[in-house]
Amino acid sequence: MFKKMFLASFVLFFMMMSVGESQAVLVKLATVAPEGSLWMEGMRRGAEEIRKRTEGRVQIKLFGGGVMGNENSVLRKIRIGQLQGGAFTAGGLSNVCPDLRLYGLPMVFHSFDEVDHVRARMDKVLVGEMEKAGFVSFGFGEGGFALLMSNEPVRSLKDMKGKKVWIPTDDRISEVAMKHLGLSPVVLPITDVLTGLQTGLLDIVATSPIGAISFQWHVKTRYITDAPLAYIFATLVIDKRVFDKLEPGDQNILQEVMTRIYQEFDRQNRADNQAALEALVKQGLQVVKPDDEELALWRRKAEEVNLGLEQEGAFAPARYRELQGHLADFREK
Question: Rounded distance, CA 208 to CA 271, Å?
Protein backbone atom coordinates (compact mmCIF):
# COMPACT_ATOMS: atom_id res chain seq x y z
CA MET A 1 0.00 0.00 0.00
CA PHE A 2 2.81 2.39 0.97
CA LYS A 3 4.66 1.62 -2.27
CA LYS A 4 1.53 2.33 -4.32
CA MET A 5 0.98 5.65 -2.54
CA PHE A 6 4.64 6.58 -3.02
CA LEU A 7 4.48 5.68 -6.71
CA ALA A 8 1.27 7.68 -7.18
CA SER A 9 2.80 10.70 -5.45
CA PHE A 10 5.96 10.36 -7.54
CA VAL A 11 3.95 10.26 -10.78
CA LEU A 12 1.76 13.18 -9.66
CA PHE A 13 4.86 15.26 -8.83
CA PHE A 14 6.32 14.81 -12.29
CA MET A 15 2.94 15.42 -13.93
CA MET A 16 2.76 18.74 -12.09
CA MET A 17 6.33 19.56 -13.13
CA SER A 18 5.53 18.84 -16.76
CA VAL A 19 2.41 20.98 -16.65
CA GLY A 20 4.43 23.85 -15.14
CA GLU A 21 7.07 23.53 -17.82
CA SER A 22 4.54 23.33 -20.62
CA GLN A 23 2.85 26.52 -19.39
CA ALA A 24 6.10 28.49 -19.24
CA VAL A 25 6.44 31.12 -21.96
CA LEU A 26 9.96 31.64 -23.30
CA VAL A 27 10.46 35.18 -24.55
CA LYS A 28 13.62 35.53 -26.64
CA LEU A 29 14.86 39.11 -26.96
CA ALA A 30 17.79 40.39 -29.05
CA THR A 31 19.79 43.60 -29.12
CA VAL A 32 22.98 45.04 -30.56
CA ALA A 33 23.91 46.33 -27.08
CA PRO A 34 27.26 44.79 -26.09
CA GLU A 35 27.49 42.20 -23.33
CA GLY A 36 28.62 43.84 -20.10
CA SER A 37 26.99 47.17 -20.97
CA LEU A 38 24.58 48.94 -18.63
CA TRP A 39 21.74 47.97 -20.97
CA MET A 40 22.48 44.25 -20.91
CA GLU A 41 23.11 44.13 -17.17
CA GLY A 42 19.85 45.94 -16.48
CA MET A 43 17.82 43.70 -18.77
CA ARG A 44 19.34 40.58 -17.22
CA ARG A 45 18.35 41.81 -13.76
CA GLY A 46 14.86 42.45 -15.02
CA ALA A 47 14.64 39.02 -16.65
CA GLU A 48 15.61 37.29 -13.41
CA GLU A 49 13.09 39.30 -11.38
CA ILE A 50 10.34 38.43 -13.87
CA ARG A 51 11.22 34.72 -13.73
CA LYS A 52 11.01 34.71 -9.93
CA ARG A 53 7.85 36.78 -9.59
CA THR A 54 5.97 34.76 -12.23
CA GLU A 55 7.24 31.52 -10.63
CA GLY A 56 8.87 30.54 -13.90
CA ARG A 57 5.81 31.09 -16.08
CA VAL A 58 7.62 33.83 -18.02
CA GLN A 59 11.26 33.23 -18.85
CA ILE A 60 13.32 35.73 -20.82
CA LYS A 61 16.38 34.75 -22.82
CA LEU A 62 18.59 37.62 -23.97
CA PHE A 63 20.87 37.71 -27.00
CA GLY A 64 23.26 40.67 -26.84
CA GLY A 65 26.10 41.99 -28.92
CA GLY A 66 24.28 41.69 -32.24
CA VAL A 67 24.55 37.88 -32.35
CA MET A 68 21.07 37.75 -33.90
CA GLY A 69 22.07 40.22 -36.59
CA ASN A 70 21.32 43.89 -37.10
CA GLU A 71 18.00 45.46 -36.19
CA ASN A 72 16.37 44.60 -39.51
CA SER A 73 17.36 40.96 -39.05
CA VAL A 74 15.93 40.97 -35.53
CA LEU A 75 12.68 42.46 -36.80
CA ARG A 76 12.39 39.76 -39.48
CA LYS A 77 13.01 37.06 -36.87
CA ILE A 78 10.25 38.51 -34.70
CA ARG A 79 7.82 38.39 -37.61
CA ILE A 80 8.50 34.69 -38.24
CA GLY A 81 8.42 33.81 -34.54
CA GLN A 82 12.11 32.98 -34.11
CA LEU A 83 12.34 35.87 -31.64
CA GLN A 84 9.60 37.45 -29.55
CA GLY A 85 11.05 40.93 -29.21
CA GLY A 86 14.13 43.07 -28.95
CA ALA A 87 15.70 46.37 -27.97
CA PHE A 88 15.72 48.79 -30.89
CA THR A 89 16.91 52.25 -31.71
CA ALA A 90 14.29 54.52 -33.27
CA GLY A 91 15.66 53.78 -36.73
CA GLY A 92 15.28 50.06 -36.23
CA LEU A 93 11.51 50.34 -35.79
CA SER A 94 10.86 53.33 -38.04
CA ASN A 95 9.52 51.22 -40.91
CA VAL A 96 6.75 49.81 -38.70
CA CYS A 97 6.25 52.97 -36.62
CA PRO A 98 7.39 55.97 -38.69
CA ASP A 99 6.65 58.56 -35.99
CA LEU A 100 9.54 57.18 -33.93
CA ARG A 101 11.76 59.13 -36.33
CA LEU A 102 10.59 62.42 -34.80
CA TYR A 103 12.84 62.51 -31.73
CA GLY A 104 15.88 61.60 -33.82
CA LEU A 105 15.47 64.22 -36.56
CA PRO A 106 18.64 66.20 -37.28
CA MET A 107 19.16 68.95 -34.71
CA VAL A 108 15.47 69.13 -33.87
CA PHE A 109 16.51 69.44 -30.20
CA HIS A 110 19.06 72.02 -29.07
CA SER A 111 19.34 70.87 -25.45
CA PHE A 112 18.32 68.20 -22.96
CA ASP A 113 15.84 70.67 -21.42
CA GLU A 114 14.01 70.70 -24.76
CA VAL A 115 14.12 66.91 -24.87
CA ASP A 116 12.57 66.65 -21.41
CA HIS A 117 9.83 69.14 -22.26
CA VAL A 118 8.78 67.30 -25.42
CA ARG A 119 9.12 63.78 -24.07
CA ALA A 120 6.90 64.58 -21.08
CA ARG A 121 4.16 65.36 -23.60
CA MET A 122 4.77 62.86 -26.40
CA ASP A 123 6.29 59.63 -25.02
CA LYS A 124 2.89 58.09 -24.29
CA VAL A 125 1.67 59.03 -27.75
CA LEU A 126 4.57 57.21 -29.42
CA VAL A 127 4.20 54.17 -27.16
CA GLY A 128 0.56 54.04 -28.27
CA GLU A 129 1.64 54.23 -31.91
CA MET A 130 3.90 51.22 -31.39
CA GLU A 131 1.05 49.23 -29.89
CA LYS A 132 -1.06 49.99 -32.96
CA ALA A 133 1.84 48.63 -35.02
CA GLY A 134 1.77 45.37 -33.06
CA PHE A 135 4.44 45.93 -30.41
CA VAL A 136 4.22 46.41 -26.66
CA SER A 137 6.83 48.96 -25.57
CA PHE A 138 8.14 49.55 -22.06
CA GLY A 139 9.11 53.16 -22.62
CA PHE A 140 12.24 54.85 -23.88
CA GLY A 141 15.81 54.75 -22.63
CA GLU A 142 17.90 57.79 -23.44
CA GLY A 143 21.11 57.24 -25.37
CA GLY A 144 22.17 60.89 -25.40
CA PHE A 145 23.04 63.21 -28.25
CA ALA A 146 24.99 61.90 -31.22
CA LEU A 147 28.25 63.79 -31.67
CA LEU A 148 30.65 63.59 -34.59
CA MET A 149 33.83 61.59 -33.95
CA SER A 150 36.63 61.76 -36.49
CA ASN A 151 40.34 61.43 -37.20
CA GLU A 152 40.63 65.05 -38.28
CA PRO A 153 38.89 68.01 -36.61
CA VAL A 154 35.41 68.82 -37.92
CA ARG A 155 34.32 72.40 -37.22
CA SER A 156 32.39 73.06 -40.43
CA LEU A 157 30.55 71.34 -43.24
CA LYS A 158 33.58 72.02 -45.44
CA ASP A 159 35.67 69.85 -43.11
CA MET A 160 33.39 66.91 -43.97
CA LYS A 161 33.61 67.24 -47.74
CA GLY A 162 35.33 64.27 -49.33
CA LYS A 163 35.34 62.31 -46.07
CA LYS A 164 33.79 58.86 -45.65
CA VAL A 165 30.89 59.37 -43.26
CA TRP A 166 29.12 56.41 -41.67
CA ILE A 167 25.35 56.08 -41.75
CA PRO A 168 23.44 53.05 -40.42
CA THR A 169 21.82 50.54 -42.74
CA ASP A 170 18.28 51.53 -43.78
CA ASP A 171 18.48 54.89 -41.98
CA ARG A 172 16.33 57.08 -44.19
CA ILE A 173 16.94 60.23 -42.15
CA SER A 174 20.72 59.98 -42.41
CA GLU A 175 20.49 59.11 -46.09
CA VAL A 176 18.44 62.22 -46.88
CA ALA A 177 20.65 64.41 -44.70
CA MET A 178 23.85 63.24 -46.40
CA LYS A 179 22.38 63.85 -49.84
CA HIS A 180 21.17 67.33 -48.90
CA LEU A 181 24.59 68.25 -47.50
CA GLY A 182 26.46 66.83 -50.48
CA LEU A 183 28.44 64.39 -48.33
CA SER A 184 29.69 60.88 -49.09
CA PRO A 185 28.01 58.29 -46.85
CA VAL A 186 29.23 54.76 -46.23
CA VAL A 187 26.33 52.51 -45.26
CA LEU A 188 27.16 49.83 -42.68
CA PRO A 189 25.34 47.99 -39.89
CA ILE A 190 26.39 49.18 -36.46
CA THR A 191 28.19 45.89 -35.82
CA ASP A 192 30.65 46.62 -38.68
CA VAL A 193 31.58 50.19 -37.74
CA LEU A 194 34.65 49.36 -35.66
CA THR A 195 36.07 47.30 -38.53
CA GLY A 196 35.31 50.21 -40.87
CA LEU A 197 37.30 52.58 -38.67
CA GLN A 198 40.16 50.11 -38.33
CA THR A 199 40.48 49.55 -42.07
CA GLY A 200 40.06 53.17 -43.18
CA LEU A 201 36.67 52.51 -44.74
CA LEU A 202 35.27 55.23 -42.43
CA ASP A 203 36.61 58.66 -41.47
CA ILE A 204 33.70 60.03 -39.47
CA VAL A 205 31.04 58.44 -37.26
CA ALA A 206 28.30 59.88 -35.07
CA THR A 207 27.40 58.44 -31.69
CA SER A 208 26.98 59.35 -28.05
CA PRO A 209 29.98 59.23 -25.68
CA ILE A 210 28.54 56.09 -24.05
CA GLY A 211 28.11 54.50 -27.46
CA ALA A 212 31.67 55.34 -28.45
CA ILE A 213 33.07 53.58 -25.39
CA SER A 214 30.63 50.64 -25.47
CA PHE A 215 31.44 49.85 -29.09
CA GLN A 216 35.14 50.80 -28.73
CA TRP A 217 34.96 53.33 -31.56
CA HIS A 218 36.93 55.84 -29.52
CA VAL A 219 40.14 53.85 -29.95
CA LYS A 220 40.14 54.68 -33.67
CA THR A 221 39.11 58.34 -33.53
CA ARG A 222 40.89 61.47 -32.30
CA TYR A 223 38.35 64.32 -32.31
CA ILE A 224 34.85 64.96 -30.97
CA THR A 225 32.72 67.77 -32.38
CA ASP A 226 30.65 69.25 -29.57
CA ALA A 227 27.37 69.95 -31.37
CA PRO A 228 24.23 67.85 -30.73
CA LEU A 229 23.38 66.32 -34.10
CA ALA A 230 20.51 64.04 -33.15
CA TYR A 231 18.88 62.61 -30.05
CA ILE A 232 19.45 58.89 -29.58
CA PHE A 233 17.05 56.65 -27.70
CA ALA A 234 16.07 53.00 -27.58
CA THR A 235 13.03 50.99 -26.64
CA LEU A 236 12.40 47.39 -25.67
CA VAL A 237 9.43 45.87 -27.47
CA ILE A 238 7.66 42.52 -27.40
CA ASP A 239 5.41 41.17 -30.11
CA LYS A 240 1.88 42.05 -28.94
CA ARG A 241 0.61 38.64 -30.04
CA VAL A 242 3.00 37.02 -27.55
CA PHE A 243 2.28 39.53 -24.78
CA ASP A 244 -1.48 39.07 -25.14
CA LYS A 245 -1.14 35.32 -24.53
CA LEU A 246 0.33 35.87 -21.06
CA GLU A 247 -1.88 35.72 -17.99
CA PRO A 248 -3.02 39.23 -16.95
CA GLY A 249 -1.01 39.05 -13.73
CA ASP A 250 2.13 38.07 -15.62
CA GLN A 251 1.54 40.87 -18.12
CA ASN A 252 1.45 43.33 -15.23
CA ILE A 253 4.70 41.97 -13.77
CA LEU A 254 6.47 42.11 -17.12
CA GLN A 255 5.20 45.65 -17.76
CA GLU A 256 6.11 46.87 -14.29
CA VAL A 257 9.63 45.42 -14.22
CA MET A 258 10.76 46.34 -17.73
CA THR A 259 9.23 49.82 -17.52
CA ARG A 260 11.16 50.40 -14.31
CA ILE A 261 14.39 49.12 -15.90
CA TYR A 262 14.00 51.52 -18.83
CA GLN A 263 13.25 54.41 -16.51
CA GLU A 264 16.52 53.60 -14.74
CA PHE A 265 18.35 53.59 -18.08
CA ASP A 266 16.75 56.91 -18.93
CA ARG A 267 17.94 58.60 -15.73
CA GLN A 268 21.37 57.00 -15.49
CA ASN A 269 22.46 57.42 -19.09
CA ARG A 270 22.40 61.21 -18.99
CA ALA A 271 24.90 61.31 -16.14
CA ASP A 272 26.89 58.46 -17.67
CA ASN A 273 27.18 60.28 -21.00
CA GLN A 274 28.73 63.30 -19.32
CA ALA A 275 31.13 61.05 -17.43
CA ALA A 276 31.94 59.18 -20.65
CA LEU A 277 32.73 62.44 -22.46
CA GLU A 278 35.09 63.45 -19.67
CA ALA A 279 36.72 60.01 -19.82
CA LEU A 280 37.25 60.32 -23.58
CA VAL A 281 38.97 63.67 -23.12
CA LYS A 282 41.22 62.19 -20.43
CA GLN A 283 42.15 59.43 -22.89
CA GLY A 284 43.40 62.05 -25.32
CA LEU A 285 40.47 62.82 -27.62
CA GLN A 286 40.19 66.52 -28.41
CA VAL A 287 36.89 68.42 -28.34
CA VAL A 288 36.28 70.98 -31.09
CA LYS A 289 33.22 73.16 -31.76
CA PRO A 290 31.70 74.94 -34.74
CA ASP A 291 31.45 78.69 -34.23
CA ASP A 292 28.03 80.31 -33.76
CA GLU A 293 27.67 81.20 -37.44
CA GLU A 294 28.52 77.67 -38.55
CA LEU A 295 26.20 76.12 -35.96
CA ALA A 296 23.35 78.33 -37.21
CA LEU A 297 24.08 77.09 -40.75
CA TRP A 298 23.93 73.47 -39.58
CA ARG A 299 20.57 74.08 -37.94
CA ARG A 300 19.15 75.73 -41.06
CA LYS A 301 20.30 72.80 -43.18
CA ALA A 302 18.83 70.36 -40.66
CA GLU A 303 15.47 72.14 -40.76
CA GLU A 304 15.46 71.88 -44.55
CA VAL A 305 16.12 68.14 -44.26
CA ASN A 306 13.32 67.72 -41.72
CA LEU A 307 10.81 69.60 -43.85
CA GLY A 308 11.79 67.47 -46.84
CA LEU A 309 11.25 64.30 -44.80
CA GLU A 310 7.84 65.58 -43.74
CA GLN A 311 6.87 66.21 -47.36
CA GLU A 312 7.91 62.72 -48.45
CA GLY A 313 5.82 61.15 -45.67
CA ALA A 314 8.64 59.85 -43.48
CA PHE A 315 6.38 60.55 -40.46
CA ALA A 316 2.93 61.98 -39.81
CA PRO A 317 2.91 65.75 -40.53
CA ALA A 318 0.46 66.31 -37.67
CA ARG A 319 2.86 64.67 -35.21
CA TYR A 320 5.76 66.76 -36.49
CA ARG A 321 3.72 69.93 -36.05
CA GLU A 322 2.81 68.76 -32.54
CA LEU A 323 6.50 68.35 -31.68
CA GLN A 324 7.34 71.75 -33.19
CA GLY A 325 4.52 73.32 -31.19
CA HIS A 326 5.91 71.96 -27.93
CA LEU A 327 9.38 73.25 -28.85
CA ALA A 328 7.99 76.68 -29.73
CA ASP A 329 6.20 76.87 -26.37
CA PHE A 330 9.40 75.97 -24.55
CA ARG A 331 11.61 78.39 -26.48
CA GLU A 332 9.21 81.27 -25.87
CA LYS A 333 9.56 80.93 -22.10
Answer: 12
